[in-house]
Design goal:
Layout lengths: L5 E12 L2 E12 L3 E5 L6 H9 L6 E6 L2 E2 L5 H6 L2 E3 L12 H12 L4 H14 L15 H13 L5 E5 L7 H16 L3 E5 L3 H7 L2 E6 L2 E6 L1 H6 L1 H8 L2
Parallel strand pairs: 3-8, 3-9, 6-7, 7-8
Antiparallel strand pairs: 1-2, 1-4, 4-5, 9-10
This protein binds adenosine-5'-diphosphate and magnesium ion.
Length: about 240
């Protein structure tokens, strides 16, 4: 594969809920080594786009190709097993289970690994996300930053080639966002492509190769972060929020 190989290719993607068009004919290509940021006002369709890629929702039209293969017919768990990992906007760990058990469960069920391989993967991802010391804590007792780490860790437990992050920096302090940036940088260095929905623009500006702006289910613009964030249309969309 060349360094410009494509991991995700979306063409003509649409999603309607009854009469409401939420995703409106999207085209998008994401490179294997890319970090792509997605911004847009609340209700723009960002999470719906992730739900379509992850297989939680079926598209009304269009195709999604991942690693060269059309994945429209695959269920969520099959998409996990071929390496599509995602975090949820609202973390939902098993609160009564320990941090380690949460990550192990994701590695066993999400990645279909043996207990032994899952255990190794879980331990490696706990170390990567800085949660190793908290492995025995009940997930329900974590701070917000550690909850976000756990959410990321569970997504990483499946060994993703493509990681979908949904507002993982939301609600964190500047210092906590910096901690998270360090972790995401390390994940990317291990060879994972990332699509990152976020309102914390500072975070996206630091790590993203490109930023896409979603508005009413369509991309207004997509390109180099500096240029996109300086675009007057982008300011209008956000000020109009
Ligand atoms: N399952 C659903 N049924 C009906 N409408 C939905 C559903 N999921 C999302 N929507 C609507 O789609 C629009 C986009 O939602 P969402 O993708 O969550 O936006 P964002 O993540 O950009 O804030 C909203 O108007 C939302 O109410
Ligand atoms: Mg959302």
């Amino acid at each position: 594969m060349t360094e410009h190989a494509t991991i995700l290719e979306i063409a003509g993607l649409a999603k309607r809920f009854g009469g409401l068009t939420v995703i409106d004919g999207l085209n998008l290509t994401v490179g294997e080594r890319e970090i792509l940021g997605i911004i847009g006002p609340n209700g723009a369709g960002k999470t719906t786009l992730f739900n379509l890629v992850a297989g939680v929702l079926q598209p009304s039209a269009g195709t999604i190709r991942y690693a060269g293969r059309e994945i429209g017919g695959l269920r969520t768990w099959d998409r996990c097993r071929i390496g599509i990992g995602r975090t949820y906007q609202i973390p939902k760990p098993f609160a009564h289970m320990s941090v380690f058990e949460n990550v192990l469960t994701a590695a066993v069920h999400g990645a279909g690994k043996s207990i032994r391989a899952a255990r190794e993967q879980a331990e490696a991802m706990l170390a990567l996300t800085g949660l190793a010391a908290d492995h025995a804590q009940p997930a329900g007792q974590l701070t917000l930053l550690d909850l976000k780490r756990l959410e990321l860790c569970r997504a990483l437990a499946i060994g993703p080639r493509l990681l979908l992050l949904d507002e993982i920096a939301g609600g964190l302090t500047d210092a906590e966002v910096d901690t998270l940036l360090g972790i995401i940088q390390r994940v990317h260095e291990k060879g994972t492509a990332i699509i990152w929905i976020e309102h914390v623009i500072r975070a996206l500006r630091k790590l993203c190769h490109r930023i896409a702006v979603l508005h009413e289910g369509a991309f207004v613009t997509i390109g180099e972060p500096g240029a996109v964030l300086a675009d007057s249309r982008v300011k209008t969309i956000y000020l109009g929020e």
